Inverse folding.
């Protein structure tokens, strides 16, 4: 049995290589970019108007004494998508729309609201300064500026920014392909007729959805009974299309726990078995070339907690995103002592009074088969063997990655 830090370090050392691909922006939502993206052109692309109004030459406005407001001849129009091609001369104004290119010669925009418009001429009633309501070429982004750094996850707004700069394709990491094998003679699928001694399968759906939340792709999902041939065949098939195989159940010491043997038959070599943790002690980790296999103890809380602690961070890193836990500190509202000899993941709920303090409540029903407390939990406290917490102690909660 190894400590959790050692299990983490070993998994880190065996991290499979990141795979990258070029995709169109329309396919890139939630994907992680694997290189910095620089601006191929400036933004705005040309100097343009921020208002509907008139493009004028500031000197005409500036010489206004106040007695006789300047009157300018309207010589044409610059519309969005259709510029005015001549130069604006002193004494002239060009009708202009928001986003339309500022014509040469003009340096200032006077909004419609601030002029008397007779059609052929305008009288300017007020203006505050040269360059008012003008957006200059490149004032937001210059050619070559870094738009997004490697490791950023693409969002609707970042995709919009890339589109506005004419970026067509982006290099992103390929979602890690994960195969799931759920073992157990006792399991009944959703909707199936169920006998009193059977158990409804929760792990398949939990793993599928947790993988997707972590940015991975579920490459395959299969169930098998506790038979060596079936389990070996299921692992072999899952490994055909996956970088990582997650097996639920069958890794403990019972006579029907055959996953280690089946994984060996499928060509995986054991790297560790058993971690000093609760839940999840019989966790098994194996490797075949660049492929990894995790044998997760079948109790649903063990499955999900092991996924959160070991596999979610791994899937993030395989996408080019460094992982760090989101944590929160607060005071625990009741005492807790770890009387066991393994690191304990204590499921807790967080409540916040505004603005402070943060109260941390250990949940009842901490059994590793009790998924209801996992559902109510915002995160966990990692409590080392023998460590005792008193009510009022300051503690740090690791928040589950799927919480928000
Ligand atoms: P195992 O790790 O196979 O010994 O399973 C440990 C416990 O988890 C047993 O009570 C199983 O019935 C239960 N279990 C195993 N797999 C699942 C599953 N997919 N869904 C719900 N419970 C499961
Ligand atoms: Mg089992």
């Amino acid at each position: 049995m190894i400590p959790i830090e050692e299990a983490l370090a070993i998994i880190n050392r065996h991290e499979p290589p990141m795979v990258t691909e070029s995709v169109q922006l329309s396919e890139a939502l939630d994907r992680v970019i694997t290189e910095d993206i620089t601006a191929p052109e400036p933004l705005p692309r040309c100097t343009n108007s921020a208002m509907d109004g008139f493009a004028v030459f500031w000197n005409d406005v500036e010489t206004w004494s106040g007695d006789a407001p300047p009157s300018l001849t309207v010589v044409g129009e610059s519309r969005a998508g259709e510029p005015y091609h001549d130069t604006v001369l002193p004494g002239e104004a060009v009708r202009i729309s928001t986003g339309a290119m500022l014509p040469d010669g003009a340096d200032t925009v006077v909004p419609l609201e601030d002029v008397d418009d007779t059609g052929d001429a305008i009288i300017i009633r007020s203006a505050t300064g040269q360059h008012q309501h003008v957006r200059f070429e490149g004032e937001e982004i210059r050619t070559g500026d870094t738009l997004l750094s490697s490791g950023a996850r693409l969002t609707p707004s970042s995709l919009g920014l890339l589109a506005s700069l004419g970026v067509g394709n982006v290099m992103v990491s390929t979602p890690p392909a994960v195969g799931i094998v759920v073992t157990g003679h006792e399991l009944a699928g959703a909707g199936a007729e169920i006998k009193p001694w059977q158990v409804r399968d929760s792990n398949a759906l939990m793993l599928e959805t947790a993988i997707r939340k972590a940015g991975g792709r579920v490459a395959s999902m299969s169930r098998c009974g506790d038979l060596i041939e079936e389990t070996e065949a299921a692992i072999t098939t899952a490994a055909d299309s996956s970088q990582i195989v997650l097996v639920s159940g069958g890794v403990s010491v019972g006579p029907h726990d055959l996953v280690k043997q089946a994984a060996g038959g499928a060509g995986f070599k054991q790297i560790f078995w058993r971690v000093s943790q609760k839940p999840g002690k019989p966790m098994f980790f194996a490797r075949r070339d660049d492929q990894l296999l995790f044998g997760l103890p079948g109790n649903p809380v063990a499955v999900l907690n092991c996924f959160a602690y070991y596999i979610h961070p791994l899937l993030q890193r395989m996408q080019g995103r460094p992982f760090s836990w989101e944590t929160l500190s607060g005071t625990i509202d009741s005492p807790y002592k770890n009387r066991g000899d393994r690191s304990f993941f204590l499921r807790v709920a967080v409540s916040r009074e505004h603005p402070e303090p943060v109260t941390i409540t250990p949940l009842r029903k901490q059994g590793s088969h009790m998924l209801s407390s996992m559902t109510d939990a915002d995160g966990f406290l990692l409590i080392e063997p023998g460590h005792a917490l008193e009510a009022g102690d300051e503690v740090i909660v690791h928040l589950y990655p799927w919480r928000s």
Summary: The first helix runs from residue 4 to 13. The chain has a mean pLDDT of 95. Helices lie at 4-13, 58-62, 156-164, 203-213, 228-240, 259-265, 300-318, 371-376.
